[in-house]
Design brief:
Distance between the termini of chain B: 64 Å
Order of helices and strands of chain A: EHEHEEEHHHHHEEEEEEEEEHHH
Number of helices of chain A: 10
Strand content of chain B: 15-25%
Keywords (chain B): Molybdenum, Oxidoreductase
Strand content of chain A: 25-35%
CATH topology of one domain in chain B: Aldehyde Oxidoreductase, domain 4
Keywords (chain A): FAD, Flavoprotein, Oxidoreductase
CATH architecture of the largest domain in chain A: 2-Layer Sandwich
Distance between the termini of chain A: 50 Å
Radius of gyration of chain B: 28 Å
Structural class of chain B: alpha+beta
Shape of chain A: globular
CATH architecture of one domain in chain B: 2-Layer Sandwich
InterPro entries (chain B): Ald_Oxase/Xan_DH_a/b, Ald_Oxase/Xan_DH_a/b_sf, Ald_Oxase/xanthine_DH-like, AldOxase/xan_DH_MoCoBD1, AldOxase/xan_DH_MoCoBD2, AldOxase/xan_DH_Mopterin-bd_sf
Structural class of chain A: alpha+beta
Largest sheet of chain A: 5 strands, antiparallel
Helix content of chain B: 25-40%
Largest interface: A-B, 24 and 27 residues
Radius of gyration of chain A: 19 Å
Strand order of the largest sheet of chain B: 3-7-1-14-11-12-13
Oligomer: heterodimer
CATH superfamily of one domain in chain B: Aldehyde oxidase/xanthine dehydrogenase, molybdopterin binding domain
Number of strands of chain B: 31
Pfam family, one (chain B): Ald_Xan_dh_C
CATH class of one domain in chain B: Alpha Beta
Shape of chain B: globular
Helix content of chain A: 25-40%
Protein name (chain A): FAD binding domain-containing protein
Number of strands of chain A: 14
Largest sheet of chain B: 7 strands, mixed
Amino acid sequence: MKPVAFDLLQAGDVASALAALAGGGDEAKPISGTQSIGPMLNLRLARPSLAVDISRIAALRECRDEGDAILYGAAITHAEIEDGALPDATPGWMAAAARRIAYRAVRNRGTLGGSLAHADPAADWVNVLTALDASVVLRSVGGERTVPLTGFFSGSFSTVLEPGEIITHVRVRKRSAAARWAYWKYCRKVGEFAMASAAVLIDPERTETRILVGAIERPPALLRDPEAVLAGRLGIAEAVTEAAPGLSAQSQALHVAAVGRAIAMADDRNNG
Amino acid sequence: MQGQGRTASGVGAALLRLEDDRLLTGRGRFIGDIRLPGMLDVAFVRSPVAHGRVLSVEKPADTEGRVFVHADLAGVAGIRADSGLQGFRSSIQPILAHDKVRHVGEPLAACLADTRAEAEDLAEQVFLDIEELPAVVDMTRARDPDQPLVHEHWSENVFLETSVDINFEAAKAAADVSVHKTLRTSRQSMAPMEGRGVVAYWDNQAEQIVVYTSTQMPHIVRNGLAECLGLEQGQVRVVAPDVGGGFGYKGILLGEEVCLAWLAMHLRRPVRWIEDRREHLIGNSNCREHHYEITGYAANDGRLLAVECEAIVDSGAYSIYPFSACLEAAQVASILPGPYRFDGYRCRTWSVCSNKPAILPYRGVARTGVCFALEVMLDELARKIGMEPSEFRRRNLVPPEAMPFTNITNKIFDSGDYVECLDRAVQAIDLPAVRARQALGEPDGRRIGVGFSVFCEQGAHGTSVYAGWGIPMVPGFEQATVRLTPDGGLEVRVGIQSHGQGLETTLAQVSNEILGIEPRRVKVVHGDTALTPYSTGTWGSRCMVMAGGAVAAACDKLGERMRAIAASVMQAAPDEVELRDGAAWAGERCVSLKEIAGLWYLRPQDLPPDVDPAGLEVTQGYKTVRDTGTFSYACHAVVVAVDPELGDVEILDYLIVEDAGVMVNPMIVDGQVHGGAAQGIGTALYEEMRYDVAGQPMSATFADYHLPGASEIPPIRIDHMETPSPISRFGQKGIGESGAIGPPAAITNAVNDALKDTGAFVAEVPLTPGRILAALAEARAAAAPELAVQP
């Protein structure tokens, strides 16, 4: 399992990375932490002629407090968030989620932007950041745009990123300790992708309530009426079926359990 | 038996492993570390289909001398490993497939380039024209008349069928209750940290092909290579460098070894093939796939009366060298009765042929499967009688006063107290406390269960056991060579191979026990056919008994000669001389080993005139007193919590009481038991190679084939018993496989115990969430059919 030969460009800045990607067309691929693209290269499932490494670009490693939100560079690693080396937009929720991504070795290299761009439906950031109503800043030679994560994933392992476009930043709104949050996932073993996951956000300050169902072989699904579920007016099973129709019986049962446990965790935290 | 633990570093000492200095600091030399000038890397083109007729394998243009197919390998014979058992159907595994392919991943062409990546580029350009045929995938259907034949000249897809009936009908007639179960173990892929790998080159000076290979049995590989390549054995040298785990995965002659040897001979260039994880999982998933229809018969008072079983083993496409395709299923029939005493037994087995990779004996071989089948059935039988399963076992285990005991299939259990082993486990797991906790229920809604498994393990099988199989390999006298070096060190040369068992340490401890030599002065040489006496290698929990016995026997002889020389120096009688603490002693007088060696090698003029001319080098053969094997035994006890909503199993407590006889190095025994148990937990909960109906492997990466990691292995408590074996040199018993045998049975019993009030029963390992949830759903449907459609 060795990759097909390809050229590697270590991009020094965003402009040169975008230029190289634009020049390379379909044959060019941005790479960062390489925790997913690496195995795909080795398995020869990915065969770019040019790989543009954007993980060392200073602008993509920055972290900026925008007052209402924190802007994270796309090349920030899971480990940096886990270690609290950067400001957390939440009361520790991001660090807690990061701590349970795969193994430390993966977290040392894997990046926020890489995880979102890869768009594995079971990936932690895909679900956690969608539940937190984060958005991504995308750039190509043609310009910059901001897309909320709810509109970013177009399918399993697929996004609205255009060829030559990269994620430069992730914007995560600040949440205060007044908000309640839970992220629950079930993995067969430590380090594996989740078989089912769910996230609950109840933010009275912003009057936002979200319940997310993740790891469903398509983009994360938000329950349509989370308040009704929390108030017990709508059954979890019914709400999950509506948000994520067509799951196998076992998968449906797991996701119902996931939502139930995430809600219980959010309640516990409030009581605690 | 000689003084166990008599010295600080002899038999019985928990000595730190001598090889760890090298292995733990990254200074070992594995296949991947060997780089020879001008070496080419080999990538194989492997079959993309499970079953097909090969119409053509076309080499890309302008690749002369870089791509090789079957027709190129002139004079090379395929691998044939027949059993002498009546009715065995013979298969020939081609080195490179030509007329047919019989499993996904079967090699079709070898491509060479300066790097592996370029060799893979070349492999992609080889054009395959294969007419796909329906595949045999389900072992329970392999014998059906509508199934295609994997080997077309056979009458059915069966390597071997066996049948045994001992007093079955008569014993069964007295039964009050019976339980029938259909049980299944999934196909697994052994996963040593280092995969397979071969480096081969032609040695002009020695005029021989030198094959470095990651193997457990260099001498057997040499036999096979000479046979397939039509060479004299003098033209073949096989070397196993450091080997990063075997477990049975490397107890085989590989087609890749034959191919690499041929390429190196014909190209006169060094060649290398390193198995990658993908070809490992796709082409070489190869163990443990059993199906059981098992029935137990008992009396209401808790006496086990009879056992009946029909077992199928999916042996894959070919019979592997040297163990053959039948070892596993034939072993099922002979070892299914386990550590129990009962009167009636009937067992039929089929080694079926399928379009999957050939099956290999994995740590525990058939015993992991039969222990699972028997023990899970016994728990059901106990529940039916209304008896605590551990108590039911207790009443049927072979009692200590019956030892040595010849069981219903003529296995001779050498020694031990199986009942005490169980009792200790019941006590240590605190069965009454678990039952009390169960009755209370868990606040989080999970269900607690406790399970036991008891088994004995035949190790160090000898000549009479293997002669019966009639396969290409029968272990005879195990040999060792010992040589006192001129500076008073000791070289120990053995034909077995150490790949994690710590034999460089334990064989040094044996040498110390006999000769009093400091273990660090002992150099254990192994894994090289040019440097060591013949041996069948490392398998079957045999090395500490057989190689340990051989080293002791050779040291005995060498010791006599050393004492004679020392006696002449000290002017004592040879039988007054004792070897200890690095010297020969006669009362207060002593001569160092260096002085003794110096006399023989450097100052022969000072030797006594009547000195034994055989010198200070001895090769000695060894067999146990009786060659029917040592029987270690163990009881595994486990407490689990099952989450009925997720189908998840958490191990709360895991305990092993085991008896390895006299432990040469207790620390290494612990390591063996821990490592084996981790693999057994993999069998029980995680590892499964799934195939689709076309025979395509569905678990072709470690993202899909789940191995337990450190986080999944609970702390394991081990309690040792130490009943000497009467047939081995120091009373030691083979223990290498033991840990891997008990977990699937014990964990399945614990899960079924946890679920028993729901009516659910899981019958197939691994116990995945899907299987547990399906069993629960089935039980709900059975209890209330009108609710079955609700989630």
